[in-house]
Amino acid sequence: MAKHIPATQKYYEPEIECMPRPQLEELQLQRLKKMVAYAYENTVYYKRAFDQAGVRPEDLKSLADLARFPFVNKKTERETQHVGSFFGEMCSVPEEDVVFMATSSGSTGVPTVSPFTAEDFELWQNTEARLFWQAGMRPNDRYVHGLNFALYVGGPDVIGAQKLGALAIWAGAIPSDRLMFVLKEYQPTVIWTSPSYAWHLGEIAKEKGFDPKKDFNIHTIIVAGEAGGSIHSTRESIEELWGAKVVDFYGLSDIYGACAAMCEAKDGLHIVEDQILVETVDPTTGEVIPDGQTGELVYTTLCKKARPMIRFRSGDIGYVDKTPCSCGRTLARIHVTGRKDEMFVVSAVNVFPSDIEYVVRGLKGLTGEYSIRVYEQDFTCRYEVSVERADDSDEPFDEVASRTMAALKAHIGVRPRNVIVYDAGKLGTSSAHKASRFIDERKQK
Predict the structure, then answer these.
(1) pLDDT at position 431, please?
(2) DSSP state of 57
(3) What domain range is 299 assigned to?
(4) How many angstroms separate the CA atoms of 200 and 203, rounded?
């Protein structure tokens, strides 16, 4: 059932979104104590892991005490799922209490399964409604859910739009021509897809003779699944193409769909701290580092019952900002800068694909499409970048390459070994889902 609140109300749940930090942290501690005890008492894995680490739930007396407890990660999930039961040793409820399951893509290994109880699912979709409202969706909006429904944890998030009263169009990952028909025929106002596909769809629309700004009625594009939504140059390019604002969302298949979202300040993504505790740790040592410093983001669920996640190492690199936001929300903002497994080091400089995307998307005379190849040569890590020259450009390829290389050197600090330039549309990175742009040949050695 839709929650009826005035469309002019700024916050969906102001009592949570604007809770004073001391009160919020007290709520987190109460929920954390209950969750850690619940996980220990009901989950085979956590009972064993805590005992082996020499910690017990009663050792948790402050939020800082969480650092004494062991981590879990994707490897933990893979090794324990289907052990002893269908959902495995990390699941804390019998299978008959699970009403929904999603899986990861399996792009970095065996797909991992994420179970939900009915209570988990209801809480999850209420959270999605909150984040949709934060993005600017209101009951009078028509919303196109352009995400894959096939086992993907983001699929059911469409229900969150219905909970706030919007008209939801369950499009899914349909072909571009069909989606353009939906945009033209039904004139929806909000759509959710990936940053690369938002760009790709706008370019295809122009090729088909449409003007995305005039022929469609989109005022908000929600994006997720790639770094682009939080990269200013990428976001600005998509906004200019569509004449709509772009709002970045962040989620994890290991927990649930979107759990953090951009506000109007566009300065990081507010995470739902009433339900998820976030830490930052040194990617190598695992030592907790202060807020504001860049490291690996670690998440602990405070409410999810089917499979608690205590200190889940996400593999995402970023930092946490708990300073007041101009939007008035007190919930911390996360800034995700890259993936630990995609970072590479050139001449002692840490480089993330997002650094390269920032440069390429901001250069005039390029389409914005790119790919990165990382490889070893003479025992040294090197990288090359491929880009596309814009359709309306007659700049010589060698000049495009030289200009791109100089811009990358200026922004990142290390130049690529080579920049390869293609004609527009020839690079082959456009995708209806996550675009494949990162080729790591070091792993083949």
Answers:
(1) 55
(2) G
(3) 8-324
(4) 5
Say what the pLDDT of residue 143 is. 98
Tokens linked to 314: 């996400």
* 241 and 274 inside one domain: yes
Asked if the structure places residue 176 within a domain, the reply is yes
Task: Point out the residues of the chain with pLDDT beneath 50.
Answer: 445
Token reading at 183: 């945009």
Q: What local confidence, expressed as pLDDT, does residue 443 receive?
A: 63
Question: Do both 317 and 349 map to the same domain?
Answer: no
One DSSP character per residue, 295-336 reads EEEEEEESS--SS--SSEEEEEEEEEE-SPPTTS--S-EEEE
Nearest to 357 by CA among 320, 333, 387: 387
The pLDDT value recorded for residue 433 is: 54
Task: Give the residue carrying structure tokens 């290994």.
Answer: 109
Give the DSSP H/E element, type plus range, for residue 372: strand 366-377
Residues 30, 32, 36, 41: is their CA dihedral positive or negative? positive
**CATH code: domain of residue 420:** 3.30.300.30
- The pLDDT tens digits of the residues spanning 357-367 come to 889 988 999 98
- Show Cβ contacts of residue 222 under 8 Å, excluding neighbours closer than 6 positions: 132, 135, 190, 191, 192, 193, 246, 247, 248, 249
**310 and 359 assigned to the same domain:** no
213 shares a domain with 290: yes
Residue 336 covered by a domain? no
pLDDT for 25: 98
